[in-house]
Amino acid sequence: MGDSNGLAFIFGALLAAGIAYFFLGSNGKSSSPTILATTGPVLHPSEYRKFKLTKKVVLSPNTARYRFELPTPESTLGLPIGRHIQVMVPVNGSPVARSYTPTSTDNDRGYFELVVKTYESGAVSSYLHAMQVGDEVSVRGPRGTFQYKANMVRALGMIAGGTGITPMYQIIQHILANPEDKTRISVVFANVSEEDILLREQLEQWAADHDNFDIHYVLNNPPDGWTGGVGFVSKEIIQEHLPAPADDVKVLLCGPPPMVKAMGALLGDLGYEAPKVISKPDDQVFKF
Q: Which residue among the candidates 84, 129, 216, 241 is catalytic per the annotation?
């Protein structure tokens, strides 16, 4: 009995240590628990769950598409359209989290994808850039308050800057994949240079294939022969390329904070409802 009690005590101690390591991490610092996504809902709003990188496609010198494996080939992420996820990675021994909108939808089974631009000062984007196939990240969600519903408005305007196109992309593909959704989509997409235009090939294919989708590019540093917009997004560009203010119109904004602030002011001047500091789902102008 003495030996068996001793073995039981040792086993219990090892089990407790293993659980502590699992929830606290190898650095011993407490953060939100991370568990493996195996059964039940793929995402959890507060628990971080681990997902393995299975594919990485370089889209430009500083941007890549990352594909992460879901628990089964038939699993879907279960993220409502318009919501985003939070990705947590270890940086210098401490957890750091950032929000991203997948460019995949629940029509894609067995995986989800993120398109991420790497910034020199971006802790999470730099971590993702250095990842190898087989590495894991921790994810929780859904996050955010906006949720798109088919035909919620007659016309949807979007102003995006840089990687701010990703929540728009998610909503656009959802609308265009549903023949019952008649929403008219108009996008103004601003970037510094032509090589910065993310997801351009797919966006232009959609514009060619669908009468209810238009996109207008604006560049700070356009190449010779550029026929799109030049400089910053102006009142004139908004008036020409977005739906006019109306009760059945909504405008979505996403991009660098200074740009979003400036666009909100321009939209207010043009007769749209002035955006609130913290957007609510029913606002005419919603800031991601």
A: 84
CA-to-CA distance for 250 and 158, rounded, in angstroms?
A: 8
pLDDT digit string (tens) for 76-122?
Answer: 999 999 999 999 999 999 999 999 999 999 989 999 999 999 988 89
Q: Say whether 48 is catalytic.
A: no
Give the SS3 label for residue 194: helix
84-91 and 155-161 as β-strands: parallel, antiparallel, unpaired?
unpaired
Catalytic residue among 101, 103, 105, 166: 101
Structure tokens at 211: 């009468």
- Catalytic residue at 84? yes
| Number of other residues whose CB lies within 10 A of the CB of residue 194 | 14
- Which pTM was predicted? 0.83
Q: Is 217 an annotated catalytic residue?
A: no
Give the active site residue among 48, 63, 66, 100.
100
Pairing label, strands 84-91, 136-143: antiparallel
CB 127 within 8 A of CB 31: no
